[in-house]
Amino acid sequence: MTGLPAEPLSDFPSEDEWLSLPPPLIGVDFVERTWAAVQQDRRDQADEQLFADRLREPALPRELLAALQPPEPSTGFAARTAALVQRDRQDRLRSLLLRYVAPEPTPDFVARTLAALHQEHHRSLVQRSVWSAAVAAAAAALLLWARPWSKARPTSLQQAALVSAGPAFAPAFNPVPSTTLGAAFGRGRDPDALPLLAGDGLYLLAATAVTRR
Amino acid sequence: MIRPVVCPVIRTLIHTLIRTAPLLLLGTELAAQAGPPVLGRARCEQTLEQLDQLFDRGDADAYAAAFTWDRPSLQQLLVQRLRQVFAQPARLQRRSQLHAEPRPFGARTVLLVRHEFRAGTATGTAPGEASGVEHSFIVLDSTAATPLLQIEVPPDQLADVSAERFTCAACNYRVGGTPGWLCVPVRPDRADDLEAVCFLLLGSDLGCEVAVHIDELPLPAPQAIEQLARAIATAVPGTRIGPVEPWTPPGLQAPLPPHLQGARATVTLPDGSVNLLHTTTLGALRHVLVVRGSAAAMASHKQEVEALLASYELLQPDAELAELAARPLRLHHGGVLAGCEYRNDRWHLCFTGPLQWHPVLRCTGAAFQVVWSCPGSSGRLYLSGFTPPPGLPCWSRVTADRWLADLCERAQLQLQPDDAGWLDPDASRFALRTVIAAPKRSEQGQPASRTIRLCLRDDLLVVIDGQVTSDGDDGLLRAAFTSLRAR
User: Fold this and answer.
1) B12 in a structural domain
2) Per-residue DSSP letters for B259-279?
3) Is the ipTM above a cut-off of 0.85?
4) What pLDDT digit, counting tens, does each position of B459-477 carry?
5) Between chain A's N and C termini, which has fewer beta carbons within 10 Å?
6) What domain count does chain B have?
7) Chain B environment of A179 (Cβ under 8 Å)
């Protein structure tokens, strides 16, 4: 069993009959189109060959190509590039931070948190008695540690201006301290610049009077 | 027996009262019209002499204790500054005198005072040759002549103040002149900004700071307010920033300039004091008004605050944006750019930056500042001018050296010891000193050292500071360093 029909289909023409059939109708431009396609195919093959040949030979003289090779990186190139990238990153991060506004907690959030804390407070009354001594000791240690540090943290604009500008400079004693702080903030955008601030005259007078003698 | 004697006496008294009543009423009326008592010049000078004696003792706290302060911020400022000054090796001696006649201000008297300082040694022997001059407003209680506050004031900037109203045509605004507020201009180098003026509501702790700034690129008003609020919050931990809202200055007349933007926000410090930040922007020109004080004073003086904010107005609302940004720098700093050259007629100098580097006029508290940037690299060149520091009549080499040393210390730079010192003035009429400063801690990507050149005249210190990372740019920088010329 080949799977072929046992007998050939009587309505399919034999080879002789096939060859004796009349030829199909051919379009009037069939020959032209076929001939044009053959020629285009030949041209494409010739172009590909030419391209391949050109690839084997450089388009410009080798001496000229050698002269056009990129130079070796200068000594400061890597450092410069790294500095530029770093500055770019700083700028982008700073602009992102400027746009960031910490969300204010909603009244509902505050209420739920307080309620949860209140509940927790009652639940842990017994535990608290056990831990109270340890927590008190830890809090005392924290206070002792934080006290000198918190003294250094400004709590007013006037103190902040003093810390920001430094006591030898005029903007430290500015009756409009918001400008000192604003300028310091803006100065951060150009970290390479010297932090040029005017000196305070009285301080300089008292600091240099002995030197003048 | 008593009644017949007493009755004629009482009758006489009543008759006397009736006859003198018109005179008494007239006297009372005249007294009311004359207002509060005005302190005489002699009484004011006596108070100044007492303050000078306290100053000469070199005790900041004792000096501040002579005042009855209602403004903690100014008390803090004075004490901080005097402590710093008194900690130096030389002891200063002060002599104060009235620079103008005492001026009544409500129940207070405002004195414009000229202080002259002379430096003696710490042991208090004979005064030295070094001297300084400052001016300040000292406000006295008109009844008891008790000093209430002291604040530095530059007398030359008082020309911009008329009836407590500050006007600056260059910066295109006017503010103040409302009852109760004392107008005090602030030196730009003290404020570290182009222009600043302070208004004090006497009798309260309320103050209003007004400042002008030119941004290199226009900054939208909400972003400017947010930036200022962030600057405060960064400097004072625990600060709370309220939402940024649009703000239209109530004193501006419709139609408003099309490019005008306004914004405001409330910032609350950990000590409970409130800062109401307001800003308007017209292109790169930015006006900032910050009202600050205790919450209680804000509530009880709401009308005065609103009146002051309503007094803010633009002089030329329809001016061109480019002109609005260029005019303040041109008129306050006095310089212009022509290609890579900077010319300044006010300070009679010109300077040529590296060819093809990009120059920008920068708005700072200095007399002027220009920055040239090298395209395609991190090379920068800074040209900055500084007038004599507040309190000093002129620059000297010793003062400039000390200032540079303090500056390098602050910037974590170590001055190289092998510089040649000061060279006498050349054709540019500047004495010159060139120093090399190296970072105390070198970071990757930063140059190993930077060259700083000081150019000194009595009235001006020019600082030329450059930084490059390639040898080719170093040549350009050296050429630029020597290009400062007198005009």
Assistant:
1) no
2) TEEEEEEEEE-TTS-EEEEEE
3) yes
4) 999 999 988 776 667 788 8
5) N
6) 3
7) 191-193, 196, 209, 211, 288, 365
